[in-house]
Amino acid sequence: MRHMNIFQYLLIFLLTISCASESEKPKEKSSRHPQVAEMQEKKQRELAPLGIERKDYKPGEILVKFKDGTGIQAIEAIKRELHLKTIRIISRPNLYLMKILDGSSVETIMERLQSFGEVAYSEPNYVRTTY
Q1: What pLDDT does residue 18 have?
Q2: Quick check: bond before 34 cis, omega within 30?
Q3: Picking from 32-36, 66-70, 85-89, 124-128, which range would have the lowest pLDDT averaged per residue?
Q4: What is the mean pLDDT of residues 115-128?
Q5: What is the spatial distance between Cα 74 and Cα 81, in angstroms, rounded to a whole number?
Q6: What pLDDT shows up at residue 93?
Q7: DSSP string covering the chain, please?
Q8: pLDDT tens sequence across 11-33
Q9: Which of 11, 91, 112, 122 is geometrically suited to a Cys-Cys bond with 95, CB 3.0 to 4.6 A?
Q10: How far is CA 110 from the centre of its chain?
């Protein structure tokens, strides 16, 4: 019985220490090494031709989150009206990855989606890269 109490105290102690260390993490430095920053800027220029704004999302794709309780008929009606096609359902029943079929910009479709009461939010299909 005494060993069990020691084990419990040890476990509580370790959890307390780990929680304390999480809250005291140092803040990231906002300044980067000049050579690293220069290399990243060069890579950005190579990826985006002059005069073209580089976008960090897939053109023609949008994520749409519908409010809880939105029926499939309402979702299908919105898709027809805005010329969207479901690529994949990210999480049932609310989050959809959709393709824009009529060539409209992601920004335009996001703006139009705001007018539907069934839509919780929409956002571009962001692309994440690591350096």
Answers
A1: 72
A2: no
A3: 32-36
A4: 92
A5: 11
A6: 74
A7: -HHHHHHHHHHHHHHHHHHHHHHTPPPPPS---HHHHHHHHHHHHHHS-TTS---SEEEEEEEEEEPTT--HHHHHHHHHHHTEEEEEEEETTTEEEEEESS---HHHHHHHHTT-TTEEEEEEEE-----
A8: 777 777 776 655 444 444 444 55
A9: 91
A10: 15
Give the type of residue at 1. Answer: M
Q: What is the dihedral of CA 94, 99, 101, 107, to 10 degrees?
A: 80
89 closest CA partner among 112, 66, 115, 69: 66
- Residue ranges covered by each domain of the chain: 57-126
Tokens 């999302």 -> residue: 57
The CATH homologous superfamily for domain 57-126 is Peptidase S8 propeptide/proteinase inhibitor I9 (3.30.70.80)
Measured between alpha carbons, how far is 60 from 87 in angstroms, rounded to an integer? Answer: 11
122 forms bridges with which residues in the sheet? 64
pLDDT tens column, 37-57: 565 565 555 555 554 455 688
